[in-house]
Amino acid sequence: MLAINQTVIEVVRGSVLEQDVDVIVNAANNAMRGGGGVDGAIHLAAGKALVEELKILSPHGCRSGEVVVTQGHALRHKHIFHTPGPIWFGGLSKEPEVLSRCYRNCLVEASNRSLSSIAFCSISTGIYRFPISRASVIATNTVAAWINENPSTSINRVVFAMFQEQEFEHFTSALAALAENPASVS
Ligand code: AR6
Fold first, then answer.
1. Which residues contact 151 (CB under 8 A, 6 or more apart)?
2. Rounded distance, CA 159 to CA 12, Å?
3. 71 in contact with ligand 1, CB cutoff 6 A
4. Is 148 exposed, middle or buried (0-12, 13-18, 19+ CB in 10 A)?
5. In 3D, which of 13, 56, 62, 73 has the Cα closest to residue 35?
């Protein structure tokens, strides 16, 4: 757990779908019509109205690192943020920068809507093969830095909901490293 300004950042083991937050983040793809992994699970749970809303909001899909905001539909969450992460091609195609933009843009969208809480899954580290050791550091650093730079944000709770044990362990270590050395948050 790491507290910065008025915001608590924590890592939990479980699905984003289980989190009691205003908005959950979907690791989507550019087409924005659903898919496998967490994307498939979210679409299944939210119902068919979700893809209908996505067809209207993003008729031509969405670029990697950007965000499409929908209602929660059958979910209890107010919103779902759909962000396509980068596909890992060895790290020389700006994958770290794009991954960082996913997290930052979600925080901006949540804050612009005056939301209090947000749950992220580990974007890109499943089907898109982004190495978890690097992704966990990028995700926690990006979120901590953004919260640090935006002390008046409405967001008072950020949850990293880790579906797999290995993700949970890496994110827990990455957040602990920031907590041990607060000066590294920048
Ligand atoms: N429920 C909750 N979390 C899950 C589930 C699930 N059923 N399955 C995976 N996760 P991934 P990506 C977690 O692979 O790597 C889709 O087809 C997983 O442990 O879903 O960004 C999209 O449509 C990890 O924490 O997404 C894209 O085509 C996180 O969800 C592509 O996969 C992301 O893993 C995106 O690949």
1. 5, 6
2. 7
3. no
4. middle
5. 62
Ligand 1 atom at shortest distance from the alpha carbon of 36: 17
The two three-digit tokens of residue 96, written as one number = 């770290």
Give pLDDT, residue 140.
98
DSSP helix/strand/coil, 6: coil
Q: Which residues pair with 7 in a beta bridge?
A: 4
**One of 39, 95, 109, 167 is an active-site residue; which one?**
39
123 Cβ inside 6 Å of ligand 1: yes
- Overall pTM surpassing 0.85 (yes/no): yes
Instruction: Give the per-residue pLDDT at 64.
Output: 98
Q: Tell me the one-letter amino acid at 170.
A: H
Identify residue 72 by its one-letter amino acid code.
Answer: G
Per the listing, tokens 């209908």 go with: 52
